Amino acid sequence: MLRLLSKNIKGFTLVELMVVVVILGILTSIAIPMYNTTQDRARLRACQANQRIIEGAAQQYVAEDKKLSECDSSAAIYNLLKDYLTATPKCPAGGQYKMDNKGKVTCTASGHVHYLSSTGS
Q: Which candidate, 42, 49, 54, 117, has a CA 20 to 30 Å from the CA of 31?
């Protein structure tokens, strides 16, 4: 009898394992939405940076006494500004860039606007 009571039992109980699983589930449910939000924000910032780069290339194009034409796709923008861009601009969210004849660039992806207001140039 004494021998059974002093027996050293190793391992985890089912309750301990379930507590660990619940804790991991809670941490995952917090981490995944934060990761997705960070990824969306990074895509938006990259798209906005691309728009500024295209606008800079358009300004260089105009500075050389060339006339801008309206472009309705990223490929058309690249064809017009190929001397100033190293590659066809691509939105990280899959949108297409459009440029008006004044050099203002927009993206067709939802919410990918780098202008704070509609007033201005």
A: 49
